[in-house]
Amino acid sequence: MVRRCTDGWCARFMERHYSALNFALLVVGYILYLIIGAGIFSAIELPYEHDLRQELKAARQDFLNNNTCVSDARLVELLARALEASNYGVSVLGNDTDRNWDFVSSLFFTSTVLTTTGYGHTVPLSDEGKAFCIFYSLFGIPVTLFFLSAVVQRIMVLVTQRPVSYFHRRWAMSRSKLAAIHATCLTIFMTLLLLIIPALVFVNLEKDWNFLESLYFCFISLTTIGLGDYVPGETHSKEANPHSQLYRLTITIYLLLGLVCVLVVLETCCELPQMRRLRQRFYEENVRELDSETTNIIDREHMSDQLTDLSDGVPVIPSVSEQAASLRQHSKSPPYTPASGSAANRKLR
């Protein structure tokens, strides 16, 4: 008897706090994902870091042994000054030919700042530049997000909504299944167009990069991670890169267009009915009920081809907004109550 009551209490507790428990599991899972990732990165990279430190110590000692006129303190001072300048995007190599703040380079910098990519290889040198960067980003980043959302919404209509609606009418296939197939095909196409093909191009243009490094740069850039360890066009040889300005301008256009395409793919995947159902597990009760209503409407759209237009016989599929408005109107209308006999008699008289 006690066990039965305990099981019933547990079942009621699980049902009452379903979304909260799922959210707690999501938080714990994400923290574990961070911890596992940190452990793997530490296990992989720590030996390489140790070897590099030993190599640098050996190179420094070898230089001092071969140049006895240079003291260790003066060498450390020179290296510290060179590293400080390198952190600001100024290298001791090729200072006469390389420019970080011409117009095209500045355009590349503003695009990486406003899209929050931020490679970090070029940063403002002056206090005025740092102050303007704060002011410029404070207004520019929200405007960029608004601009990208507007562009993505318009592209979504052409790339996702219209093709899915067309094939839904043409093939009479379930909209949820058709949306999943479309999202998969779009992801594969964009991967080839934005990652594989540009990586092959960078392999030929950047002589020091292999395919993995080129693919790594494309992925890190288009996901706005922007670590800055690989930046194209940073060669200090005019013979290796004779059209550096045009090259950097082309990369700027590629990054902006690529970011828009990545956002379209992500929005397409997030709007899948399967993803909506998954998100409902972690919502609050009222939000989950509202989103469940929208999901049910989308799931029932594949049956709406039975409603035909009498003029041309083409199936008419009501939009989600129209069906939601109809449901709200029916839910707000008062229930029907039959009139009493005396009231009916008065109306007849």
**CATH class category of the largest domain:** Mainly Alpha
Secondary structure category? mainly alpha
One letter per element, helices H and strands E, the order comes to: HHHHHHHHHHHH
| Strand content range | under 5%
Q: What is the averaged pLDDT score?
A: 79
Helix proportion: over 70%
How many strands appear in the DSSP assignment?
Answer: 0
Number of helices: 12
Bulk shape: extended
Question: Major beta sheet, specifics?
Answer: none
Rg, please?
31 Å
CATH topology of the largest domain: Helix Hairpins
- Total domain count: 2
CATH architectural designation of the largest domain: Orthogonal Bundle
Low-confidence stretches: 305-321, 331-349
- How far is it from the N-terminal to the C-terminal residue, by CA? 66 Å
GO molecular function: outward rectifier potassium channel activity; potassium ion leak channel activity
Protein name: Potassium channel subfamily K member
Catalytic activity: Cs(+)(in) = Cs(+)(out); chloride(in) = chloride(out); Na(+)(in) = Na(+)(out); Rb(+)(in) = Rb(+)(out)
Domain Potassium channel: 97-155, 191-269
